[in-house]
Amino acid sequence: MEIKKIFEAESFVNGHGVEARKFHQDEYMMMVHLNLNPGDTIAKHAAPLDVRFLVLEGKGIVEIRDESKEVEANTLIESPANCGHGWRNESDSVLRIVVMKMQASTKK
Q1: CB contact at 8 A, 74 and 93
Q2: Beta bridge partners of 81
Q3: Cβ neighbour number for residue 64 with a 10 Å cutoff
Q4: What gap in Å lies between CA 51 and CA 79, rounded to an integer?
Q5: How far apart are CA 85 and CA 46, in angstroms?
Q6: What is the pLDDT of residue 50?
Q7: pTM of the full predicted structure?
Q8: Are 89 and 41 in contact (CB under 8 A)?
Q9: Quick one: fold of 6-102?
Q10: How far is CA 59 from CA 17, 74, 82, 97, in A?
Q11: If we measure between CA atoms, which residue out of 47, 50, 54, 106 comes closest to residue 75?
Q12: Which parts of the chain span the membrane according to its record (predicted)?
């Protein structure tokens, strides 16, 4: 059994200026914890992998393709490979998200 704790992973500022912690990576999946403070934004960008976002705390605006939706804690959002996605924290509290990037599925 292997147990990993998010806050034991080293913190860094990602390319979007947001605090991140990569706490898992293998040949199939990478998992990163993001901490978006009020006003933080992750510009819309595309990834060549399927991405899942699990909101752990707070609420924020997720953009996928040309759709925007406010989401809150305990919500899972799916973003297919090669489509643009981004985040905005317009609230007055922290938004914590786990990002799971995995090999693109073959289903259409």
Answers
A1: no
A2: none
A3: 18
A4: 5
A5: 6
A6: 95
A7: 0.91
A8: yes
A9: Jelly Rolls (2.60.120)
A10: 19, 10, 25, 10
A11: 54
A12: none
Among 14-18, 79-83, 103-107, the range scoring the smallest mean pLDDT is 103-107
Residue matched to tokens 């489509």: 83
Averaged pLDDT for residues 10-33:
96
* Rounded average pLDDT over 32-51: 96
Closest CA to 80 of 57, 53, 40, 55: 53
* Rounded (10°) CA dihedral 13, 28, 80, 8: -30
Evaluate whether 102 touches 50 at the Cβ level (below 8 Å).
Answer: yes
**Averaged over 63-68, what is the pLDDT?**
96
Three-class secondary structure assignment of the chain: CCCCCHHHCCEEECCCCCEEEEEEECCCEEEEEEEECCCCEEEEEECCCEEEEEEEECEEEEEECCEEEEEECCEEEEECCCCEEEEECCCCCCEEEEEEEECCCCCC
Q: Is the pLDDT of residue 37 over 70?
A: yes
pLDDT, mean of residues 38-65: 96
